[in-house]
Amino acid sequence: MASSPLAIRGLTVSYGEKPAIFSVDMTLRAGAMTAIVGPNGAGKSTLMKAALGIVTPLSGQIRVFGAPVEAQRHRIAYVPQRASVDWDFPTRVIDVVLMGMYGRLGLLGRVRAHHRDQARACLARVGMTDFADRQIGQLSGGQQQRVFLARALAQDADLYLLDEPFAGVDAATEKAIIGVLKSLRDEGKTVLVVHHDLATVPEYFDDVLLINTRRIAEGPVARVFTRDILQATYGGRLASQQVDRLPQTAG
Ligand code: ADP
Ligand code: MG
């Protein structure tokens, strides 16, 4: 699938002796919302970072819209796990969003009024218009996450990668974020989300990739998000109430 937004073959990444992900294949469906699901330490973040070219694989092939990542970086927007971002210097919200445009502006390009207007429109889309001039470090976790999503929107990308965007956010923020992601999908963009909450997978996502170092399954939620496959992904670590309502096998 040369035209897939993200096609991965035989990807192995290792930080030490033991691989964090081993020989993983995946093919993202264009215009779909896909979840990456798996236990802690399964290699979900590693897979995403490899797709972005942030970590170097031991082996395997990665194609973004049919080309190497380096050639397509401008088409990918990334919202990292919030805990990994440390704002210990004062930065205004509007400037965080403008950072999303640097790829198009160029490092020496001047920020002009229409860029600010675009950045404010992105803030409006996540319900953060009133916070444009606040310091990012002074916002709540949920508000920060909305700002990071606004920065991703400002990139005007074709492929959106988000690593646990709902972790530690309030219910209203979760609703706002999922609404924006679905609207991106409805515009034809492709969205890939590392997702922690099994209960919301069928409601939020079209497709799901289940991994535990290796790929366990990939495909439409209705086909692969089953008790058997979740058991294979999580083993004994899965609480039964998380899966009781799911079909046992694909119907
Ligand atoms: P997940 O996102 O599914 O929780 P990660 O991709 O973060 O999993 O991690 C997969 C494995 O790789 C874990 O065992 C983790 O401890 C290890 N790991 C992740 N990042 C690093 C790193 N920078 N250095 C060493 N080991 C790492
Ligand atoms: Mg992770």
Descriptive report:
It contains eleven helices and nine strands. The chain has 251 residues and is of the alpha/beta class. The protein has a six-stranded mixed sheet with strand order 5-6-7-3-8-9, sandwiched between helices. It has a three-stranded antiparallel sheet with strand order 2-1-4, covered by helices on one side. α3 runs parallel beside α6 (141-154). The relative contact order is 0.17. The model has no long low-confidence stretch (mean pLDDT 91). The protein binds adenosine-5'-diphosphate and magnesium ion. Residues 15, 20, 38, 40-46 line the site of adenosine-5'-diphosphate. Magnesium ion (MG) binds next to α1.
- Overall pLDDT level: 91
How large, in whole angstroms, is the Cα Rg? Answer: 18 Å
Quaternary structure: single chain
Q: How does the major sheet shape up?
A: 6 strands, mixed
Order of the strands making up the biggest sheet: 5-6-7-3-8-9
Heteromolecules bound:
adenosine-5'-diphosphate, magnesium ion
Looking at the structure, what is the overall shape?
globular
**Distance between the terminal alpha carbons, to the nearest Å?**
27 Å
- The ordered string of helix (H) and strand (E) elements is EEEHEHEHHHHEHEHEEHHH
